[in-house]
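dumping these here so i dont lose them again. two proteins, back to back, each one seq then structure tokens. dont judge the mess
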Amino acid sequence: MEIPPKSPDGSEKSPQSKELMTSNTASTLCISSRSESVWTSASRSKWDIYHKPVIVVSVGAAVFLFGMVITSLSCIQIKNKNVYKMCGPAFLSLGLMLLVCGLVWIPIIRKKQKQRQKSQFLQSLKSFFFNR
């Protein structure tokens, strides 16, 4: 028979006691979850809520304007005209896509915020009436 190795501090633990040891998995999952704002009720600033779509809209507008400049250079510039004609519309379409995605994202966030406020209100009503 094999003798299990002793722990460094000299105390032996049986395999059953190792299984009964508590796990920190549940608390780790709650801490690392993406929807941490559901667990905390701290209010967030407008910038915390809307910073991603604002950045997408800003980058989209900049790329769109860059595409307009490059496209207009294809009309003026004689040298490398084919390069400008290919790159200009590509930047125009990419910028327009980012701009529209960011502009559509903002109303979606507003709708989610309203739903979350309604949900918190209903939860407080439930807890008020059912916890008596």
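---- next one ----
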Amino acid sequence: KEFEVEISGTMVTIKCPLDDSKIDWELTGVKQASKEKKYILENHDSSPTNVTCSSVSGKYTMYLNARVCANCEELDALAVTGIIIADLLITFGVLILVYYFSKDRKGRASTGTGSRPRGQKMQRPPPVPNPDYEPIRKGQREVYAGLESRGF
């Protein structure tokens, strides 16, 4: 058997798993006046608490670490599902709009480029290589005749 805990705002309701009519409640070592099967913590401050309910037939202990707040709104599963689905629909709608608007611009050339074809820019030819570093070709050995190896 387990404790049943209900949280609403700052009120925490704890139901003891014992079936006796007189139940002694103890919170963090302090005995409480209530003898009911349900114990209600009004204005709980979210501090961790050890809860014990006992009677002649047994004793149950629980560590309660319930976070509560006064201004919280409770959402059911249907509301959360609706919010998520609406967010996804809006996101996909924006994606589709961006896709269709960008698809139309692919085929059109922009007005600032003029009538030049898009591709490699052929404004000037590549630079001529430096003749000092020109590779030796067949029939041009006389240029490099003065570069014979010297014996040391």
